[in-house]
Amino acid sequence: MGVGKIGLALGGGAARGWAHIGVLKALINAGIKPDIVAGTSIGAVVGGCYVAGHLDAIEDFARELTRRRVFGYLDFNFTGTGLISGQRLCERLDKHLGDRSIEELDRRFVAVATEIGSGREIWLSRGRLVDAVRASYALPGIFRPVKVNNRWLFDGALVNPIPVSVCRALGARYVIAVNLNFDISSRGAIVQESHTNPGELTVDDEPQPVTGKNGVAMRRLLQRQLFGRGEDAPGISTVMVEAFNIVQDRIARSRLAGDPPDAMISPRLHGIGLFDFHRAEELIHYGEMAAKREIEDMTREISARRESTQLTPWRG
């Protein structure tokens, strides 16, 4: 690998990952083109499309999503190991990435995944790009796991939510990290509730009949159960992903403390949910703005290191 490489670590965060698109656009416009890209979960999706030359395609896909279209991509699977098989999403990725292998890309790319059973952190740096990306975003319980090289894998955010360490290991001397869950960190305080009124506790046990033709009622039931029936009734997916995200945030803070990046980009995404895939326009904008806030400092630091021969010029 040599010395002087610039690394980009793209973190997980479900729908918030569209902010990575804005970050990359800002970096490109500033002339900062990383030699190494490591992604976890949605970070692997956007990062993989970027290194394959399809950043515009993934942006177009994200911007065309509506609530209805998001639900249309969810192919429910009640007999496997996840609520969603992910085949429809896989077909869309195949359309853009095809059979491209990671080895064919013009720069280093790694998708981080977790091995079922052993809990090992797996760095996918060879083989089909689509398979690596799918394994990295296979959220436990939501998407079914993916078998790669005889290993069953799921979401890498369980072990390395923001893969700074991967960039370092591949020779990056300057690492830019993107943290999509910065606002969640501020929610880590302990709150003691000592005066709860038992009469205020409620249980959402309203029965939902399954009736109707052509599966319409079932579809609506699934939508309510997965995405909730309002602010006071979070759906299954929201509960699962929020719980997963809290764990991811704690792991990320621990790992970043031991191996901090040289620059951190933290989009301000308060109020944007983890399943708000239809809000791509806002997310891309927030990502771009967050990157622009850091670009002046990053450019100065990169130039200073280059002048001191610690960094070689990045590839244009």
Account of the 3D structure:
This protein has 316 residues and is of the alpha/beta class. The chain has 11 helices and 10 strands. It has helices spanning 19-29, 42-51, 55-63, 67-72, 87-97, 129-137, 164-169, 182-185, 216-227, 236-258, 280-307, and strands spanning 5-10, 36-40, 82-84, 108-115, 121-124, 141-143, 146-148, 151-155, 172-178, 263-265. The strands form 2 sheets. Strands 1, 2, 4, 5, 7, 8, 9 and 10 form an 8-stranded mixed β-sheet that branches. A two-stranded parallel ribbon has the order 3-6.
Key phrases:
about 325 residues; 11 helices; single chain; eight-stranded mixed β-sheet; alpha/beta
Q: How many beta-strand elements?
A: 10
Roughly how many Å apart are the termini?
Answer: 17 Å
Oligomer: single chain
Low-confidence stretches: 188-212
Mass-distribution shape: globular
Q: Structural class, from helix and strand content?
A: alpha/beta
Most strands sheet: 8 strands, mixed
How large, in whole angstroms, is the Cα Rg? 20 Å
Order of helices and strands: EHEHHHEHEEHEEEHEHHHEH
> How large is the count of helical segments?
11
Q: Which percent band covers the strand fraction?
A: 5-15%
Mean pLDDT: 81
- The level of helicity is 40-55%
